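ugh finaly. both done.
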Amino acid sequence: MPLIAAQQIMASRMVLEGDRTVAFVARGFDINASTLGGRVNRHRIASAQQERRPVSGPERVRIREAERENAELR
């Protein structure tokens, strides 16, 4: 793995697992803040999709009823 890719992975982890901002970590690694921010956001989105649980039958019915009610109110 190239050094730059390893640095970006390490920098991403520092942002995700710590209390440091993207800008602060990017300056420390001499990485563009937008690049690091994009990488961190992609990781957050991927993690959220993996954690999403399927909707149960009764919950699906409740959601459908709420959507119908919203449509009627519009």
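ok and the 2nd:
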Amino acid sequence: MIESQSLTKSDCEKDLGIYIQSDLKWDTQIKYATSKANRVLGCIRKSFKYTQSEVIKLLYTSLVRPHLEYAISSWSEIGTRFWDSSL
């Protein structure tokens, strides 16, 4: 209780753009990041049909990769195990 108000239990909380689950697993963060990156990648594919590989690489590194790499230092080890098991 804080100031006579009950605290509610939450299974997942978003703080500074990172999802943290109550069991300290990162599944929600990984799913969110890959979903957002895939949406951006889909927009690139729709917008640029005939481009050179250098342009695609530049678009990928500037628009898609930041979504995958955001705060990776906090969940990268766990994320590596998650991606390996899902393949």
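summary for the 2nd one i guess: The chain has a mean pLDDT of 81.
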